[in-house]
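User: Earlier you gave me the apo prediction for this protein. Now I'd like the version with molybdenum atom bound, so I can compare the two side by side. Same sequence as before, with the ligand SMILES added.
Assistant: Got it. Here's the input I'm using:
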Amino acid sequence: MDRREWLKLASVAAVPLAARRVHAQDVPASPFPGMTVRMNEPRNVEYPFAELKAFVTPTEQFYVRSHFAVPKIDLAVYKLTVEGEVENPLSLTLDDLAKFGEVAMPLTLECAGNGRVFLVPQPRGLQWGLGAVGTAEWAGVPLAAVLERAKVKPGAVDVVLVGADSGAVAGDAPSPGVIAYDRGIPLAKALKPESILATKMNGEPLTVAHGAPLRAVIGGWYGMASVKWLSRIIVTPRRHDGFWQTIDYSIFERRAGLPSLVPVTAMQPKASIARPTLGEVVAANRPTLVTGAAWAGEAEVARVEVSVDGGVTWGDARFLADAKPMCWRLWEFPWTPAARGPVKLVARATAVSGTTQPVARDADRRTYMINHLVPVEVLVK
Ligand SMILES: Nc1nc2c(c(=O)[nH]1)N[C@H]1C(S)=C(S)[C@@H](COP(=O)(O)O)O[C@H]1N2
Ligand SMILES: [Mo]
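And here is the structure of the complex with molybdenum atom:
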């Protein structure tokens, strides 16, 4: 967007809200500085991971993953409904929601397809590098509080979160015409404190790209569960087997050796190297820092190790701060390269549970949950 277009949009937004019908997307979209565009329409952009410096990702640099165009939401009539297996169905305005009281917490979101560009052979789907991940301070209402008000009936199994966006998905397994973006999560996860209905991101009202006026944030899980532009919550008596957790965002799980499709859920342990970057030239015999972030979904990251010889020997990285629940940890590893020539850097995260990253890619994961070790080759000169 050029400056003139930007100013035009900004002046539209300055018209008093009462004077016209207000749509969430009348507010100018952020210009996404320094982002890599992975798809132009709908807009899908990636965080420049090499620029990682702070625990919190600036909103305008937070990756955007949207399957459909941003929906038109008329804020004057916007309501969130809570339906299905509840004693007390709800229809809540944003003002009603605000009365539930505000909780705020940082949570890391990673797209289940982050790192897809490293898969061999190259599969279909957006070719995310390292940057479909970020950490924001989210504020809103606990999903549990809303479900409590709605009085979930005994026997409820899933809580289906439905976005206001919709479209037809093409491909080998196309959607049955136009469908909404939706995602079911088990009731037990919906009731956890890390499941929130967010109206704010990094202290500001949600931007349109990130789901204004209301989105779910399901901490510890891959991003697909954090439904943006939330319009309906449907409590169901059995597992929701919707498009977005069967055809899309599902992996094979072996049961007695037989592959069964299951929805993608919690983020896996993963350490990513921010600097040096792939192909970067590093000075020999001079101290340098290997830096990055590591996260482990619902678990805490206990350890990050770095190898400067392609995974033969490993040394412990140091953390820049204490662990926060379901958030990434920034780390650094001092390194003085000696011999000149190409070097393969590898980082590996281990969760408190002892779970660490696989060395090789597991084909059962299809094109999701990409956390096998991927070396970063640099040149020592
Ligand atoms: N309504 C809706 N919600 C959605 C999506 C979407 O396409 N539509 N994409 C999901 C996916 S796959 C991810 S990774 C996260 C990305 O959130 P972000 O764009 O705020 O980073 O949103 C999730 N919520
Ligand atoms: Mo995603």
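For your comparison, keep in mind: The two ends are 40 Å apart (CA to CA).
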